[in-house]
Design brief:
This protein is α+β, with helices and mostly antiparallel strands and 123 residues long. It contains four helices and three strands; from the N terminus they run H-E-E-H-E-H-H. It has helices at residues 2-23, 69-92, 102-107, 109-119, and strands at 40-42, 47-52, 96-101. Strands 1-2-3 form a three-stranded mixed β-sheet, with helices on both faces. A hairpin with a 4-residue loop joins strand 1 and strand 2 (47-52). The longest helix is centred in the middle third of the chain and has 24 residues, at 69-92. It starts with a helix and ends with a helix. The structure holds zinc ion. Zinc ion is lined by residues 54, 59, 61, 101-103.
């Protein structure tokens, strides 16, 4: 499942990388071994950023598939429960946790930049 997530998520992560580069946001690392394997980690600001694929994480912008509906519903519920648990554990360890939906990155990248900058206290 973890493999599926990272593979399915690559293009979204790339999109965030280019968005952050264009906005001049620096200082992030990838592949840090923290709880839930955050997609991006800003160690100095103690900020972690997850990019959640709308499909896998059950965003409202995606309806349930017509086939295997129960399976997908259960899978997404599990994913979301795990997301919440991971956020909680990181928050308890004094990390700021930012979750970015795939569709936000696609539709309103400028808002995503603002969210990150705010969390980093840049603006
Ligand atoms: Zn979505």
């Amino acid at each position: 499942m973890r493999n599926n997530k990272s593979k399915g998520n690559i293009s979204t992560e790339m999109k965030l990388i280019s968005t952050m580069k264009a906005a001049g946001i620096k200082g992030w690392r990838r592949g840090a071994k923290l709880e839930g394997r955050p997609d991006f980690v800003f160690f100095e600001a103690r900020l972690v950023v997850f990019v959640d694929g709308c499909y896998w994480h059950g965003c409202k912008c995606k309806g349930l598939p017509k086939t295997n509906t129960r399976f997908w519903e259960a899978k997404r519920l599990r994913n979301r429960a795990r997301d919440r648990m991971v956020s909680l554990l990181l928050t308890r360890k004094n990390w700021k946790v930012l979750r970015v939906w795939e569709h936000q990155l696609r539709k309103t990248p400028a808002r995503v930049v603002k969210m990150i900058e705010k969390a980093l206290n840049i603006r």
